[in-house]
Amino acid sequence: MFTKVYDKVREFLNNEWKFFLLVVVISFITMFEFPYYIDTPGGLLDVSERIEIKDGYKSEGSFNLAYVSEIKATIPTLLIAWLRPDWDIFKEEDMLLDNETAKDLMLRDQLLLQEAIGNAIIVGFTKAHKDVEIKSEKVYVGYVLEDADTTLKVGDQILEVNGIKVENKEQLSKLTQTFKKGEKIELRVLYEGKEKMRSATLKEVEGRILVGIILTQISEVETNPEIDFHFKKSESGPSGGLMTALSIYNMLTEEDLTKGKRIVGTGTIELDGTVGSIGGVKYKLKGAVKKKAEIFFVPAGENYEEAMKLKEKNNYKIEVISVAHIDDAIHYLKNL
After folding, report:
1. Which of 256, 312, 323 is nearest to 289 (CA)?
2. 3-state secondary structure the chain
3. What ranges do the domains of the chain cover?
């Protein structure tokens, strides 16, 4: 029985080898990934779909995050990118900071998202005059500079420095200044659920004592009413901070700022409400126009200038609004 089946299979393969070779070639062409990324205009994400506030107000319109679509380079996607002027090709190493791996980038973007969410809650609730209390602040390593003399890793939550408990970024920065150039410090950290000991030899730059890392601070808060988030694992980065804060504010106040409009925006948010610049403005604006948004909030400065240049070049009808602080966006919407 087995022999007959084997003979039939072998005969089929002998007769159809060209077909199977073609399948292998096509699979290679479509699936083999090159060390490049392709950035394209992305879509929109209604922030309210990711936020849950008990008894929160509903909106007639929507606050939307604009995002960049990033795909790996294969032969088909590279061919499309060469034909489409709004698809840009980047080398894989150009997408990473110096001394950074793809895993580091993913961890950093997840930390930045959590930082943005914490900041957005505090800003949104404070502006709406609702109860919000910071219960704790956790300090993480977001990036390690290439010339840093340390065993710290991206994703480390710093718990102690030389036995002194770390409360927040500001306290850690002041603590670092109490040491001397060339002094070696010991840090107790939490990494992937396990406590570990790291070390760092301090350097002096322009009169300041530094470890050679960039920190991210995530605030754990208690609010009334309660708030919950449902972002997906694939959604990360800090650029949704402004729109998240606006959406939270709008869900907490009776006046609907959207006025029934599809509002898109981008920009980081600081605890004082300041809006920070981001990357990929041109892709985000193109995505907003494609989805027929009516308003596009963009950080003041270079981001705004880039967006306006693109708007004028392509004669976009969308309103591009410069925002340096969340109050700028709130004031604009209240006066629509």
Report:
1. 312
2. CHHHHHHHHHHHHHHCHHHHHHHHHHHHHHHCCEEEEEEEEEEEEEHHHCEEECCCCCCCCEEEEEEEEEEEECHHHHHHHHHCCCCEEEEHHHHCCCCCCHHHHHHHHHHHHHHHHHHHHHHHHHHCCCEEEEEEEEEEEEEECCCCEECCCCCCEEEEECCEECCCHHHHHHHHCCCCCCCEEEEEEEECCEEEEEEEECEEECCEEECCEEEEEEEEEEEECCEEECCCCCCCCCCCHHHHHHHHHHHHCCCCCCCCCEEEECCEECCCCEEECCCCHHHHHHHHHHCCCCEEEEECCHHHHHHHHHHHHHCCCCEEEEECEHHHHHHHHHCC
3. 2-31, 34-130+225-334, 136-217
Cα dihedral sign, 289-295-299-304: positive
One-letter amino acid identity for 27? S
Closest CA to 200 of 161, 165, 143: 161
Query: Residue 233: what pLDDT?
Result: 77
How far is the C-alpha of 240 from the C-alpha of 238, rounded, in Å? 6
The answer as to CATH 3.30.230 being correct for domain 34-130+225-334 is: yes
Separation CA 300–CA 321 (nearest Å): 9
pLDDT means over runs of 10, the chain (336 residues): 60 61 61 72 87 92 85 73 74 67 83 94 97 95 92 96 95 94 96 95 93 94 94 83 96 95 96 93 91 96 96 95 97 94
Given this model, what pLDDT does residue 102 score?
75
What's residue 39's pLDDT? 76
Q: What is the pLDDT of residue 210?
A: 94
What global pTM score does this model have?
0.83
Looking at domain 136-217, its CATH superfamily turns out to be: PDZ domain (2.30.42.10)
